Amino acid sequence: MPKKFKSLLRYFTGTEKTLWCVSVFLILVTFFAFDRGNILTLAASLIGVTSLIFDAKGNPFGLVLMIIFSLLYGMISYTFSYYGEMATYLGMTAPMSAFALVSWLKNPHNGNHSEVKIASLKEKDIPVMLFLTAAVTFVFYFILKAFHTANLIPSTVSVTTSFLAVYLTCKRSTYFALAYAANDIVLIILWVLAAFSDRSYIPVATCFALFFINDSYTFINWTRMYRRQKAPVH
Asked: pTM above 0.85?
């Protein structure tokens, strides 16, 4: 077994390896049960859950994978006229993940580029975040309405939660994972609705259900990491 692969296995905890393996297994099961044809959906789902397990470690490589996932997911959203999802991930999540990647690379914890230095959200950031979120939501609502986006209200809420998530990711805040978890719930609803029309979208709904579990774990792990990083060195 190559040394790099062995070191990668040691890098992740037993919980993280189990979480990734179960996620991959369920993605494959639902894909072969309900789709079998859309390789794009399968690729996006596998890349997505892999990005989250790296995100949980505060590893910038997770953001690289998230950019790739955003591009693929934008294409998938287009096929069901979820123009909000397409515009959100191609026009906002992907580029802002790139900005976040730069921020994470510039702020390693103690020089360790495999772990970002977690930051506390400053008081002055909160009103800016809320204002920008409200502005983005307002503008996107009318854009999505003009494009006759399917399931307009949930699609608009998805824009709101997505923007919060990427903003907090750029700020290296622990709460980015909670924002993504909230976005996952909205996306589960959106793709379950889509699955009523076409069962091949069931794997996408499953994907975001697994994202919710992974994002919840990320929040827990980042809370632990933050405490460790802030602990006094003896």
From this structure: yes
